Predict the 3D structure of the following.
Amino acid sequence: MTEDSDWVERFPGLSRLDLPTKQLLTKRSTIVRVPKNTMVFGPGKSPENMLFLLDGTVRVQQVSETGHQIVLYRIEAGQSCVLTTACLLAYDDYSAEGIAESVVKAAAVPREVFDDLVAGSKPFRDFVFAAFSKRLTDLFLMIDEVAFQRVDVRLADKLIKLSSGADSVSTTHQKLSVELGTAREVISRQLQEFQRRGWIEQARGSVTLKDRQQLQTLANHNA
């Protein structure tokens, strides 16, 4: 038995399935590995498998015809890809792209197995739609932020979250603009203002948080 043969147990919703269904998933799935910065899926492509992430992070982003980008969400270890779920259910092509932010390992379950389980297994169907509903709620919140929240508030919040408690964030103005769905110039102006206030210090490819408390106070306007 390999270390990945019990991957189903790493997903709470799947671990509650009956033994025959678990065995079907593990027997019919394939463990795939994707290098960092590789496109896992992209617009116009049809999903052939349901993906369950075991290791790494995948960034799902929308790219407009003019090249404008916005991060929709990230898939972390222990999660399934809701966009893949939607495309499988609708027999549709991807409308966004997924980029491996690190080395990624995932269990790929073929479309026909996914279809059979959605139709015949209530616990599996419940797992699929629970994950789908949660991500849909997150997307509505993201739309609300982009449409109605102040950029300075969202930027302060994003810097704190990306820092994960560290003193600095490895990022660029362009990456932050993609994260927040706004223009690079807007991010640059706001970072300059944060620096003028003494809250941050900028360097090439990084932002140092000099006054986390002030950033947190501003970010709390998102609450």
Observations:
- The longest helix spans residues 122-148.
- DSSP finds nine helices and ten strands in the chain.
- The two ends are 47 Å apart (CA to CA).
- Strands lie at 30-34, 39-41, 49-55, 57-63, 69-76, 97-100, 104-110, 168-170, 200-203, 206-209.
